[in-house]
Specification:
Blueprint: E1 2-8, H1 11-25, E2 31-33, E3 40-48, H2 51-65, E4 71-73, E5 75-83, E6 86-94, H3 98-114, E7 127-133, H4 139-151, E8 160-162, E9 164-171, E10 178-186
Antiparallel strand pairs: 1-3, 1-9, 2-7, 4-8, 5-6, 6-7, 9-10
Helix pairs in contact: 1-4, 2-3
């Protein structure tokens, strides 16, 4: 099965990010926007794995979560990969909570590597994907909207209490990906 490890977002953060998506949609760009119920912060994509590896990943999640305290995370900026002038992937960055998330990812990577799943080659970038450009249609309008949000408009985002990490199953369908929670591991209470 196809799986990934992520931080689930609260309804308040999802609603806030949906509002950001709506502002960006005004550009009329050809973007496949992430469904609000599917928005999350990916920690590690596992790819296609058999049941044995999934069970081992659950154990790694429990071991990792037991070493980390709960913390808070706050979305803080809008951006794009590879850059804002060429927005292939549109994202929201994180200010508060980035160091803790990076440490969490490093620990997950170490654990997952022990069960034969390779580490990421690229350095981890703490972000929440909002959408992916499909074609260059109205891309300049999207760049303008991104710059408006980046430079002039930014209301404070709600703060998210990160108290667990989640292993998801991802099933691709014609209506988009369907995510199912396979396991959740609680971080230590502070």
């Amino acid at each position: 099965m196809r799986a990934f490890i992520a931080i689930r977002l609260s309804v308040e953060v999802e609603d806030f990010l949906t509002g950001v998506q709506e502002k960006l949609k005004a550009s009329g760009a050809d973007v496949k926007w992430v469904e609000p119920r599917n928005i999350h912060l990916t920690l590690k994509f596992l790819g296609e794995r058999d049941n044995k590896r999934i069970e081992e990943a659950k154990t790694i999640l429990e071991e990792t979560a037991a070493r980390f305290n709960e913390y808070t995370l706050q979305p803080s900026s809008v951006g794009a990969f590879p850059d804002i002038r060429h927005p292939d992937i549109i994202w929201i960055g994180v200010s508060q909570g980035t160091p803790e998330t990076v440490q969490l990812v490093q620990s997950i990577e170490e654990g997952i590597c022990r069960i034969g799943i390779p580490k990421e080659k690229r350095p981890f970038a703490c972000h929440i994907t909002l959408g992916r450009s499909r074609t260059p249609k109205n891309i300049q309008g999207l760049v303008e909207q991104l710059n408006i949000l980046k430079e002039g408009f930014w209301e404070p985002a709600p703060v998210l209490k990160v108290d667990k990490i989640t292993l998801f199953k991802s099933t691709l369908s014609s209506k988009g990906p369907l995510y199912e929670v396979l396991h959740e591991a609680n971080l230590k209470k502070t």
